[in-house]
Amino acid sequence: MAMKHFTIQDAATMYGVKEWGYGFFGINSKGHLEVYPTRDENLSCDIHEVVTHLHKKGIRTPVTLRFPQILATRVTELNEAFHKAMKEYDYEGDYQGVFPVKTNQIKEVVDHIVKAGYKYRYGLEAGSKAELMIALSMNLHAEALVTCNGYKDESFIRIALLALKAGRNVLITVEKMTELPLILKVAKELKVEPLLGLRMKLNAMGSGKWESSAGDHAKFGLNTQEILDTVDTLERRGLLDSVQELHYHIGSQITDIRKIKAAIKEATRVYAKLVKRGVPLKYLNVGGGLGVDYDGSRTTFHSSMNYTMEEYAADVVYTTKDICTQEQVPVPNLLSESGRAIVAYHQVLVVDVIGLIDTTHTKYRVELSGQEPQILKELAYTRDNISVKNFAEMYHDAITQKDELITLFNLGYLGLDDRAKGEILFWEVCRKLSRILSYKSLKYIPEEFQDLNKSLADKLIANFSLFQSMPDHWAIDQLFPVMPIHRLKEKPTLSATLCDITCDSDGKVEKFIDLKDVRDEIPLHEPKSGEPYYLAFFLVGAYQDTLAMRHNLFGSVNEAHVIVNEDEDFRIQQIVPAQTTDDVLKSVHYDPDELVEGPTRRRKISANSDANEALKTALTEQRKLHTYLEMN
Ligand SMILES: *Cc1c(COP(=O)(O)O)cnc(C)c1O
User: Fold this and answer.
1) 103, 145, 146, 211, best to mutate for ligand 1 pocket (most atoms within 8 Å of CB)
2) d(Cα 182, Cα 180) in Å, to the nearest integer?
3) Which domain holds residue 611?
4) Residue 460 maps to a domain
5) Number of domains in the chain
6) What is the 170 CA–ligand 1 centroid distance (Å)?
7) What digits encode the pLDDT tens for the residues 508-544?
8) N or C: which end of the chain has fewer CB within 10 A?
9) Residue 162 within any structural domain of the chain
10) Residue 76 class from Cβ within 10 Å (0-12 exposed, 13-18 middle, 19+ buried)?
């Protein structure tokens, strides 16, 4: 029987790259992963070549690759989506977005976004004083907005109002009633008329993990009465013209377009009623929440979404216009604060696999001589006789026998050799059972066996820290696509889960994207000795960099910014070196000089001063190196 060749199409289907890759990623004829930063098939480069090139220059994995052209593509796509929808529905207002700095504050990232957004008068949103300082430093279009959300104290407000006075379009969103008197006080003192937004609490909720961002109990926003009170206060002070924006944010990663429509409907009604009361609102800010389809399934699952960016823009524009027409008020200029959807795609984390944990003893098989203790003979009998007809019963036998094996060992009746043989026999039973369960003829698989494959999965150890590089996978079960960046013409032989190199048993990836469900393991290749095996995690550009934790003192990883040129060529625009061991030690208050001198000074080990000197040299060298393993 001729075996069908494993092709790159098979690999594409296996890893779902066409679905989640959204035209930014694909597989080339070499079986390597290819990036298309403008989603144009004529401009691309080979990610494996980039990683090999970096490796030769001493930039080791784990390495973060940033593709600035992807950022520019996303900024353009978002703005064009709104412009197109506005044209289509004859919308008489404008679109003017702001990028929420909190989704990725890295300087180069914000720089690229601002540059790409200049012609769209794209602005920035800040949620803290530090983020406001970033926003004010950027070279924005003169008409671009800087919006200030989040809780604010007097100095936050003072900076915002001084920047306004100095000519920047800084808009302060009132999140809480107590902020208003502070804003009015500082504004009076500085003799400046503030630009204000009102953040409202909507009844419409987001869904999934960020549901609590909206509704009556939301942390932020004003309820209906508070909005009315604020408007009255401002009117009494003759400052009604300051209220330019109505704002809401119902949470991040809204998976269901119906929630988005419900929110915009409710918000536009509030807008219209306020306009009719004489509030001269100019902007309706629909907040963030535009999702990213991490698993490519286009469903309402938490790591997916059931709409596209174009549909999102069209629905927001259409609904706003529809309700304004009903209410007979002019349409507002629309403002949105999409962060995740702008930055998620541009960042890829490449890691090398450093080994395999053979939990199930795949490399071993036991042959009995006949002299072994009874319990081993029983396990061998189970192994040799388990079949389609009796697998449930035989599997229960095997479990009892394994328990007995351990009991006998603990009581001192068995030696280490016997215990080892017994354990191997047990896993042989499990592997045979797994093959039986995969027979197509089997109509019904009892529930107790459904997790069996999970326990038989191979564990690959990858050189990275989950806590540093993908904290959201640990914290909120967010799924990120992962796949090899090479060997994609070769059929994977392992069904594996991943472990990181932290000493934390939570430092693992055992949930993977799938079009229908969540997978417990993914097909991967057996690492070849002497040859690196690289995996990449995708769509990690939003939120992960600054949520990162230094668990086990693994610091930030090497970073390369890659520009793709014509003819499949690329240029490394910038390298940001990983945090050194020195950096992370200082971050927890150690003096690295002391750490080098200390161990050699404390004892007078005159007998072995050579070792002492060598230790000093080794420690001194490590100070300058990154915190990860160097395996190849
Ligand atoms: C976090 C946040 C955003 C960004 O949300 P995304 O879902 O990442 O687009 C926008 N606006 C506010 C007020 C936020 O807090």
Assistant:
1) 103
2) 5
3) 582-623
4) no
5) 2
6) 18
7) 999 999 988 899 999 999 999 889 999 999 999 999 9
8) N
9) yes
10) middle
